[in-house]
Amino acid sequence: MSTRDIPWIQPLKVTLRAGMDRTFGSIYETLDFLENEWPQKRGERYDHAVLTCRQGLNGMAPTELAREAFVAACLEAGMPVVTTQSLHHRQLAHRLSWARV
Fold this sequence. Notes:
The protein is of the alpha+beta class. It has 4 helices and 3 strands. It has a 3-stranded antiparallel sheet with strand order 2-1-3. Helix 1 (27-36) crosses helix 2 (44-57) and helix 2 packs antiparallel against helix 3 (63-76). The termini are far apart.
């Protein structure tokens, strides 16, 4: 597997079963969570997410496909997901708000 990480365009915030929120900003971070911290119950969408994240890191699948597969796996496991703004987007919005003053 490639060691280079590939960031999502927009991070994902997942509400874990314990009620805590966790933000995922890249394929590698997501794959690590899937392989090492995923809740016990695994399903078809979980398997697909692991496969597409591995393929994404190796350049064999589009980044967005891996991201969508992760979202589907989270929903299958009963963990709500929302898209968050990336740090770049937040900084840009802040700069634009100051430019209007």
